[in-house]
Amino acid sequence: MQNHFSLWKNIGIILMFLISIIYSLPNLYGDDPSVQISHVVNKLTQAQASDIEATIKTTGAPIKAFEFKDGKVLARLTNDDDQMKVADLLRDKMGNDYTVALNLAPTTPAWLQSIGAQAMYLGLDLRGGVHFLLEVDMDAAVKQAEERYNDDLRLALRDAKIHYQAVTKDNGFIKITLKSADEKTELLALLSKDFRGLTVTEPEADEQIWLKMSDVDVREIKKNAVAQNMTTLRNRVNELGVAEPVIQQQGENRIMVQLPGVQDTSRAKEILGTTATLEYRLVDTEHDVQQAVSGHAPIGSRLYYEKNGNPILLDKRIIITGDQIVDSSSSSDDDGRPSVSISLNGIGASKMGKLTQVSIGKPMAVVFIEYKNETRIVNGEKVRHKEKVEKVISVATIQGVFSKRFQTTGLDSPQEARNLSLLLRAGALAAPVDIVEERTVGPSLGQDNIDKGMLSFIVGFALVVLFMAGYYKLFGLIANAALAFNVVIVVAILSMLQATLTLPGIAGIILTVGMSVDANVLIFERVKEELRNGNSPQASIFSGYDKAFGTILDSHFTNLVVAVVLFAFGTGSVKGFAVTLIIGILSSMFTAITGTRMIINWIYGDKRVEKLSI
Amino acid sequence: MKTTNINFIGNRNIALIFSGVLSLISIISLATQGLHMGIDFTGGTLIEVGYQQPADLNVLRQKLDTEGFEDATVQNFGTAKDVLIRLKLQEGVSSADLSTKVLDVINKDVTEPASLRRVEFVGPQVGDDLAEDGFLALLYSSLAILAYIAWRFEWKFSLGAIIATFHDVIVTLGLFSILGLEFDLTVLAAVLALIGYSLNDTIVVYDRIREGFREFRDKSTEEIMNISVNVTLSRTIMTSLTVLLVLVSLFFLGGETIHNFSLVLLFGVFFGTYSSIFIASPAALMLGISPADLMIPVKDNSDIAHLP
Questions:
Q1: Is the pTM value of this prediction over 0.80?
Q2: Could you tell me the residue range of the domain that residue B79 belongs to?
Q3: Which end of chain B has less neighbouring CB within 10 Å, N or C?
């Protein structure tokens, strides 16, 4: 019996088809413009949710649905204008500790959701939004660590009562010069106990010890710099209020941030790109500032400038740094000036406590440090330049002993206070980051891209279908059925994998529509050839499929290799193209070989056939 | 379609001269003019804005000029209402802020502000990386295919396929160079897809030649090649037509963003089809392919198949 599939094979193919249809269904449902409200730390209570609902109702915007789940509120609205209106109002009312995010909530029915069916994940070029690639400055991270070691070493030497002449940084080494070589054993013991990350070298000079960060240590520092930056970015993005942010490490030192739906890119850039940190330092009141301005800064102090341009001398030793800050919020002080309240962690608090105990009445300065990035062209070469902007934002006299909580004033505006507190709360970045790539797509262009992609898909599909039916008659119609089946499978797999669909991705689907009929063309041409050679229709079908199979395998495999390489090396939208190409090639082999064969077997199998409609 | 009987192989010199000339022109253009690289590879900033009315480009240019963006190029994108502004990497300006500044400049003192449709900023390092990745993708896919065909067929076929494919790629790149079209990431993706397609076509022909080598022991290599190209001709043309159909639809309806992408493929599919008919087989022939190259494994297989 030629050209007959077993019952199980038939059922298997049909089952696969049905599953594909079900999992591609969510794509037919649209989205609701909606607003998502959550608390930064806690879950919302039922009472809070009801409050929010009441607040939304005051705008007069009709609420399509109000969902309260997992301590989060999702309010579905009817149009974009209402969405903006409601979000603005809520942001105003809810304050700093809540995140109000714009969202497009899918309207997938519950029964589909319950089996995990979701619509395809649209890339930024289709839904609009911002894509940033940030580069972590590893050299700066290592340098900072060196700086920290330097400080810690002095402190440890002092605590252990080891007398030293100098601790200096030189060419990647930290060189300790002792007062006498006698204390060297003590020093070595201290180093092996508390500073295992440092490699010890003993130079010829007896009273010296040279230290270098070990490779393992440096690698660890770099790894941590990226990890800490990612955490910080995640916090900052949460503050921005984005519904589905993507934050991923890319390569060794880059971080990709995707913010779907964000339109105000300048604010996003401001928040993401600047590295800001605070340092608290004592003011040096014993030396003359003017002498320092003319170039003779006293040892142990450094010259800074205040915001109004006045020079000021500060102690070189840092009291606390931004990474010891655990929380901050903006408010006004008693005189109504904008201020930032700051809470410190244990180490920071004890340092601050110790210092304030002995320094009441002395002035203390807050230095705000920002890293700004510039790309300059010097002699035709692109040179990345990082500018460290340091300014003293406030000088205040220490009024009493404090440790864990205190306030900083001296900010220009409430807006500046808010921004500063946001930056501090989100944590200072461990190492400066650079925005090295930005791709922003406005919402109108995103919708445009979807429309154009759909239109060219429909037209392209229709052209191929007409052409195939015209040329191969009944066999052409069967190939068309397989083609439709193929598209459904591609959409279903893309939906299941939640792979990102981009505009080039849509182009990839369209391209596979054109290419996937190739397998059928190969088969049908082979069948025709067999017929011409005088074989019976049944035998022609059989050997046509049989002989074409090897060719299809070889030719599709090379295509697949290219698509996989493209996937491995491509980024962003190109990767989206590769994904659809890979899925399309694989599924087209299945539909074009097995799918068409099943239908042809139904029509022609197990009976006497005089002529094929091909 | 009846099986044709055109003497492709016998007249191979015509095609080879034609392709040689085309390749030469392409290489000369690539060497002298080079490719107009997009910001994906050079680094820089690209800003697309939309207006309700057709925009006056001269006014925009003037505004940007007076505000210190002298090297900005301003042109329409697709329609008269869409404007594309390109900026090179700037000196002394924080690159990430550039787009905001440009938008401020062109929206100063206007009744209808432009709406931001797209911003792309690529830093110099990223541009270099993307170019490197692109080059590696080309290299690795070529090597992988070379190995696969050498394994499945024979190294002369493998080399022949690569020659035919490189011909397509060079001619397509040549066209981009001559027309001064922008070469960006999506175009590179299209070039890679084209490699896949062109090979696909070539392999179908080779597959048939291999089959012919086993089937017609009494015919010459040249004859077998001619028969193989002729019997696969209708398939080669049919498949190319369906792919061209969808590409035409993409080219005309898919929008500006993938215009060049579809152009590469349109052009590439055309030449891929041409090369698999006219170039791939003569190339393998000139490398000295003969039935003997494929005989031994065939015999082994049939022996095994006939064992009880």
A1: no
A2: 44-122
A3: C
